[in-house]
Amino acid sequence: MLLVRSVLFNIAFYTNIIVRMLVLSPFYFLMPRKAAYRIPKAWAASNNWLMAKIVGATFEIEGMENIPEGGCIFAPKHQSAWDTFALLPYQRDPVYILKRELMWIPLFGWYVAKQKMIPVNRGARGKVMVDVMQRTKAEMADGRQLIIYPEGTRRPPGAEPQYRYGIARIYRDVQVPVVPIVAHWGLFWGRRKLIKHPGRFKVKILPPIQPGLDPDAFYALLIETLETASDRLLIETVDANPHLPLPPEAARRVAELRAQPAA
Q: Which terms are listed as keywords in the entry (predicted)?
């Protein structure tokens, strides 16, 4: 049954993308940018609905009150394709820094260009990165919310963290609050995994780290904040979903955490 539900979800997921793009693209490209954002947000909400109805995986969000008014940086842990879009319906006007190759995908690249997403050559240095930062500042001056994954790529739940320093440079230069976010999406929709697992879990939006810290101090604080909250939420998620088959990294980390003496 799990396999059947997962296959049905995958069919529905890709059909949802294709049909919406074919039917709604003329409206999307004719609408003003901010109004047009309602279309990808509705697509994201529909995917969450498909996960709930077909797979039986749902989530709740804690900490919406921690999102500041105006421009800010969201810094989520990144585990799954799901976490790239699931929170879109709850964000005002998000902007992503993304690898430039995504801009070359027909239609999809046009969609993200319409929303003024910021492409970057990951191997770039010098003037290219200066231009990226200038674009980032311009978008955030308009009150947008920057989404940046501090680890740069998807990591399995419980895996040893591998943070990149780039977020500290952006924090230094942009001077807006950074909002850490943790959730264990990867336990339900794993990277490059066909099987999707049912269950219910929490997404925790943590209190923002205010601007003005030394970049090194901010970087250390962000890592400590995300990893501490992620460990606590991992135990909570596993306890609430005892049926889940844990990836090796998650099983190892859960065992390590349970072996630690109580505080």
A: Acyltransferase, Membrane, Transferase, Transmembrane, Transmembrane helix
